[in-house]
Amino acid sequence: MTVDTLGVGLVSVGWMGRLHSRAYRALPDHFPELGVRPRLVVAADPLPAARDQAVGRLGYERAVADFHEVLADPAVDVVSICSPNFLHREMAVAAAQAGKPFWIEKPMGRYASDSRAIHEAVERAGLVTSVGFNYRHAPAVQRARELVRSGRLGRITNVRGSLLADYSSDPDAPLTWRFERERAGSGVLGDLLSHGLDLAQYLVGRIAGVTALAETFIESRPRPGAGIVDRSAAAPGEHGPVENEDYAALLFRFEGGAVGTMDSSRVMRGPHAEYTLEVYGTRGSVRWDFQRLNELQVALDGQEVDGYVTHLVAPGDGHFARFQPGAGTAMGYDDLKTIEAAQFVASVLRGEQLAPSVADGLAAASIVEAAEASLVDGAWHDVARVDGRLTTDAAAPVL
Fold first, then answer.
1. What is the pTM of this model?
2. Per residue in 28-68, pLDDT tens?
3. 3-state SS, residue 131
4. 288: Cβ contacts below 8 Å, ≥ 6 apart
5. CATH says 138-382 is which class?
6. Does the UniProt entry include the keyword S-adenosyl-L-methionine (predicted)?
7. Residue 3: pLDDT band by 50, 70, 90 thresholds?
């Protein structure tokens, strides 16, 4: 790595891999003070069409089939891991052993045991990392966190969250790896609730105990035909069992005394990506919905209007000013990933953990682990404490 060039390697050229690539390319425009121009060196994917896309569309200098070639390339300074869940542990541990800082999507592993192995490998290597908890970076969430952590809402009493989606609502959608316990681990617990649980801890504090219920509503799906690898393609034919949950609901207690509820579905008819978080205190509350990314509902004691007012995010909220000049002109999902890329790159350049870390990824996985134990016996379970470079309670990094 030179002063102004950062060599990037990508593992898996799917939708998220393309998004990571665009985020790296956007850094000189939105975060010029980082002083780096990412160089897209090499991408790995087993599919020839994906490798062609990496070079022809995304701008990588070359593409390979084996991810080990990415890790072995001396021109690669950082690695993005955007592969399916069941490959994360092998790839992330290998990246840590190769001394390559990496940005990995969540869930970090199929199970908490996968996430612990990744965390331990990173701690041994002394690397900085990033985990794709992108909703943290929404300016509305940043404003909500300021209100919570400054005490403006008073003593926090309860949190309510919901992550409702329809991406698996078609019963004729194929039985891909996402529905297999061995390759995906849990269903919505890891895929969606890990996001909501991270947000709850980021705003309020550590979740210490949990009880849960879950259900699988579409119990079988058609086995996929040749070449079908994603969750959206239709695949009529022989059916196989769905091995993880379509729906889950949690009750939890925060270490500071507040309580919370959160539920999630991947088969809900109606909501497309209704990801909400509400925080209630003795002096007010805030509500945020991902589908209205640039708005925050705020109710505070003493405000002129009784009830909720809509705060449109504006310069001064998070990194909004880097993308738009004023309230009412919206940021988008890709912008959140650009902020995430900036935090990762800044972490690497400074040797300081600024981005959401693998310890944060393990913290979310530990809640899921406790929830899955509760599904077996119906009891409350303590959440294992994580030692490491947690950023949940850290001040928002200055980039």
1. 0.95
2. 999 999 999 999 999 999 999 999 999 999 999 999 999 99
3. strand
4. 138, 140, 141, 144, 276, 277, 278, 295, 296, 297
5. alpha beta
6. no
7. low
